[in-house]
Specification:
This protein folds into two domains: about 1-125 and about 295-325, Alpha-Beta Complex (Quinone Oxidoreductase, Chain A, domain 1); about 125-270, Rossmann fold, CATH 3.40.50. Helices cover about 30% and strands about 25% of the residues. It has helices at about 10-15, 40-50, 115-120, 125-135, 155-165, 175-185, 200-205, 220-225, 250-260, 270-275, 275-290, 305-315; strands at about 1-5, 15-20, 30-40, 65-75, 85-90, 100-105, 110, 145-150, 170-175, 190-195, 210-215, 230-240, 260-265, 300-305, 320-325. The strands form three sheets. Strands 3, 4, 5, 6, 7, 14 and 15 form a seven-stranded mixed beta sheet that branches. Strands 10-9-8-11-12-13 form a six-stranded parallel beta sheet, sandwiched between helices. It has a two-stranded antiparallel sheet with strand order 1-2.
Length: about 325
């Protein structure tokens, strides 16, 4: 089968190599699945660089989420059958950037009927992360102001739709006019282009000096530091990741005197600590998708042969919307 493997660590365009790999084997409660569409995520970039918390041994095939068709079930699988259309995170080293992958049955979910293969491939990680961040960690309330950094990115775009679904007023921060158009199309009430505007001043003006009740930050570094200047009384700053490359040092004395909370989210831990909550979240996301309330917007649909270029574009911050690869796509 066709597969992209990381054979050494570095930038995606340099280290992803197309190979003719053996069909992955399955055991116990696992599924062998055919890839219908695979979405690029920043963890794929970090794994190529050897900078992610999960470091599979070389060589490995990245691709941490996708939409698949079940082609074989393990002997201990009872809830899935051949032909089912599913989504989930593949078991590394057999990731989704290949014609076939492996899923654990316990981490597999039915693909919402309302979504295409490409849309369903982009629903799992970003929307689960956004939902747990906003509802489980920040306890967002109707009428609150939500500030989202990297609002045109994978998790940021999901947070826009989920914030609107929760009844929040959403302010999105993006880098560039094309990304501003995308965030507006997603439903953000106010969109800030960080290249030409100061988000701190815009947030203060839009909230009459109060600040944002919830700040969704997948960027870190200086973005986090400046966010503390426009957080509301009893506000919550969600630390989602460090796509900007710098891990900030939180000034806890500032959190004390300004009376705000700093909340971390590692969504992957819920699969171990509260798997029932992950499944309940998927049920809610499926309802929202089937009702047309949330829908991943696909910025680029590429063929499997474009994996290195597409993942590198994500790494370089040059993508708008979700980048999805399909073995069946023509270029």
């Amino acid at each position: 089968m066709r597969a992209w493997q990381v054979t050494e660590l570095g930038e995606p365009k340099d280290v992803l190599t197309e190979v003719d790999a053996e069909m992955p084997e399955i055991h116990g409660a696992q599924l062998r699945v055919r890839t219908l569409a695979a979405a690029a995520n920043f963890p794929d970039v970090l794994m190529c660089r050897g900078m992610y918390q999960v470091r599979p041994p070389l060589p490995f095939t990245p691709g941490v989420e996708g939409c698949f068709e079940v082609v074989e079930v393990g002997p201990n699988v009872t809830e899935w059958a051949v032909g089912d259309r599913v989504i989930g995170g593949p078991v590394l080293p057999h990731g989704a950037f290949a014609e076939y992958a492996v899923l654990d049955a316990s981490g597999t979910f039915a693909a919402p009927e309302a979504l295409t293969h490409e849309e369903a491939a982009a629903l799992f990680i970003g929307y689960q992360t956004g939902w747990f961040a906003l509802h489980r960690r920040a306890r967002i309330q109707e009428g609150e102001t939500l500030l989202i950094h990297a609002a045109a990115g994978g998790v940021g775009s999901a947070a826009i739709q989920l914030g609107k679904a929760a009844g929040a007023r959403v302010i999105g921060v993006v880098g560039g006019a094309d990304k501003a158009e995308y965030a507006t199309a997603l439903g953000a009430d106010i969109v800030i282009d960080r290249h030409t505007q100061d988000f701190v001043e815009v947030v203060k003006e839009a909230t009459h000096g109060r600040g944002a009740d919830v700040i969704f930050d997948p960027v870190g570094g200086e973005t986090y530091q400046r966010s503390t200047k426009c957080i509301a009384f009893e506000g919550r700053i969600l630390v989602i990741g460090f796509a900007g490359g710098d891990i900030q040092q939180a000034a806890l004395n500032h959190a004390l005197v300004k009376n705000y909370s700093i909340l971390g989210l590692h969504w992957g831990l819920y699969a171990h600590h509260d798997p029932a909550a992950v499944r309940a979240c998927h049920d809610e996301l499926t309802r929202l998708a089937n009702e047309g309330i949330v829908k991943p917007l696909i910025g680029e649909a590429r063929g499997l042969d474009e994996v290195p270029a597409g993942v590198q574009a994500l790494a370089d911050g040059k993508t708008v919307g979700r980048v999805v690869f399909s073995p069946a796509a023509t270029n």
